[in-house]
Amino acid sequence: MHPTAPAKLLRAYGDRQGDGMVQMSFVLELPPSARAREAAKKFAELHGLSEPLVSTMETCAEGYTYFVVYGHSAHSVDPSTIDVPEVRTEALSREEIHHRIETRLGRKIVVVGACTGSDAHTVGIDAILNYKGYAGDKGLESYKCFEAYNLGAQVDNEALAERALALGADAILVSQIITQRNCHKENAAALIELAKRAGWRNKMVMLLGGPRIDHKLALELGFDAGFGPGTKPSDVASFLVEWMCGDREKAVMT
Amino acid sequence: MRVPMDEKKVARCRELAGSIADDVQRYIDGHTSVGAERTFLRAFGADGVDDQGAPLANLVVDRYQKAGLLGRGVSYWLGRALASGARDIQDAAERLAYAPDLDKGEGGPDRDAVARALAPATEAAIARIDRARAEREANKTRMRPGANPLKYVIVATGNIYDDAVQAKAAAFAGADIVAVIRATAQSLLDYVPHGATTEGYGGTFATQENFKIIRRATDEAALEYGRYIHQTNYSSGLCMSEIAWMAAVERLDMLLNDAMYGILFRDINPCRNFVDQYVSRRFIARSGIIINTGEDNYLTTADAVEKAHTVLASQFINEAFAKRAGVREEQMGLGHAYEIDPWIENSFLLELAQAQLVRQVFDRHPIKWMPPTKHKTGDVFQSHVHDAMFNLVGVMTNQSIELLGMFSEAIHNPMLMDRYLSLKATKYVFGAAKALGDELSVKPDGVMGRRAVQVLDEAHELLVQVERDTIWKAIEVGAFADVKRTRTGGKGYAGVCERSPDYVNPILDELEKS
Fold it and tell me: Which burial class, exposed, middle or buried, applies to B107 when counting CB atoms under 10 A from its CB (0-12, 13-18, 19+)?
């Protein structure tokens, strides 16, 4: 901790408090030259960097130059004015999860997960659901109190819905990794629409995860919670326990 | 640098894999599929789409499949149409697709007449593949490829014209191989889209026209930079054999092509996949294309330390299947990957041991070394270091084809700058450590030596088990990649059909001769 109290307005921290140092790297469509260097400086200044230093200028393709620029960012943020709902991150222990589900719910929580649409990347859903888990944190399959079904990749929304209903799922986990031209958003929102039309949206808790997902985005798309990169299976398990058999308000911190 | 390797055990693994593949080959030889039959139809020269965009090849094959007549082979029906007065292959195929009355095989030209009618077209079909191969080989003599490991990068804009620009930029920055990654889910389409495409998610559609556009760009780049630039695409999924044929005639250099990948990772039906991989590899064998197998993917779903042996076992199996399709060792780019959790102590040593083991076991094969992906986070700086370690293994163990890691892995499809920096760093590591592998020797009883022995032992045990249970069973219980698939489950099973005793396929006959 810095001995002086942190400023209310935060600037980027480089070497000293308040120096605003940031680095940028980008490509401009012109060959390297004195003019290109000035163009890069100007470009950095337009982003609010003062005293920009172009530390690298190299041809990265014919007619294209790659730049690294350091500069002092003039901008600051006041975190106290920012309102971001966050999924509770306080993970419950395995025993606590088991105990709560057993005593308060008295049955297993059924979870169905899939990578939906054309998305073929199962890394995320596998990490959360499969026994092996992620970074030493075992997946939901490893919990006695969860019944986890991983439907894998490229599952249509319709197929996911059908399977979840057939299995009597309590929760649906959707993983979306491919984000080109926002296809992840459209696809995720389409599942919620489908659930609403079919009248079961409020019967299940619906979670969205992926590298470009955060809780705020998930809520906007109509999900109950969103999980971004670095989420561990126990985070999802804890969330589900709070939601299913605890204080639902506590499941989401605002 | 060599790791200890029991030659007898390696030979035994090959025998076991051979027996595993023979069992499946008996099934393959008795069956065909809609995908395979469409491929032969295309190879004869049937081309084009209807006003709805449905390929002629699909219209014909689906019609005969629905009528229960595909067991004789589409070539038979095509031959009958030719012998009954069709002007040429295109006209014959159009008659099969659109004629009001379906030819049910009653009366008309007999088998010999069909064979005679098909003979010139068969010769032309084979000659077309051979011509493309000769042209590729001539180009490679004029413009020599770079040194191993060949640097492989991916472009994936969704728009083939942007891909062409990026392919040239990658060649400029030092890439030897350019792959245009396919639009996600193309592997599940039971037809190949037609023409140039400019919209696709996660990649660009593989079409014959798109192949031509990238070939032109990479040929131009080769001329400009004085180095042969290889073109790669994906022969997997429900159209793996059609793509293989298109690649063969459009002079592609490499194809992602695996005997089991589709089953495990795309939930393609096992029967369908085995039939289609065989046909695709028959075309690949003839065309001289190098295959890239997909074992690297196993470690994205299963643990890279515990399941390392499944990669090696699968490489033996892929090799056995490829041999049975006439593919030579020099065409087999067996895949493996740097996917061990980087934070495990000595993870680098374990990677180095396995990479060297694979190099030794498959010493004539242009093996393919894949970068870390599973343990990549959005920390681009850490990621760049991770890739550097991967590159070091690549050059030390003399991998043949190296797909470059991207520091933006886990964030977005690579940008121009990402590829440039990756190529720059790779060039540094490859140059700085060029002879390192030749300088070092491995302690037989050290961490690496023991690891190599263990991986081969475990691969051998797994092969013994798979050979006893058959591959069908092994796939059912999740022996590979921790993924379980049943024999009749998955996509595309309805497109498999038994060959009748009078099955006709002169192109396949010709391919099987060579």
Answer: exposed
Q: Chain A window 60-89: which residues touch B at a Cβ cutoff of 8 Å?
A: 60-62, 64, 66
Helices (H), B109-207: 111-142, 160-172
B429-447 pLDDT, tens per residue? 999 999 999 999 999 999 9
- Residue A180: the pLDDT is 62
Asked if A132 and B303 come within 8 Å (Cβ–Cβ), the reply is yes
Structure tokens at A153: 């990749």
Residues counted in chain A: 254
Domains of chain B with CATH codes: 132-450 (3.20.20.440)
Report whether pLDDT(A249) > 90.
Answer: no
Whole-angstrom Cα distance, residue B176 to residue B463?
Answer: 35
Q: Is the pLDDT of residue A6 over 60?
A: no
What pTM was estimated for this model as a whole?
0.85
ipTM: 0.82
Angular region, B267: left φ>0, alpha ψ -120 to 50, beta rest: left
CATH of domain A86-253: 3.40.50.280
**Residue reference for tokens 């010769």:** B123
Size of interface A-B (CB pairs under 8 A): 80
| C-alpha span between A73 and B231 (Å, rounded) | 43
**A1-82 and A86-253 share one CATH topology?**
no
Provide the pLDDT for residue A119. 72
Instruction: Give the span between the Cα atoms of B458 and B361, in whole angstroms.
Output: 15
- The verdict on whether omega for the bond into residue B149 sits within 30 degrees of 0, i.e. cis, is yes
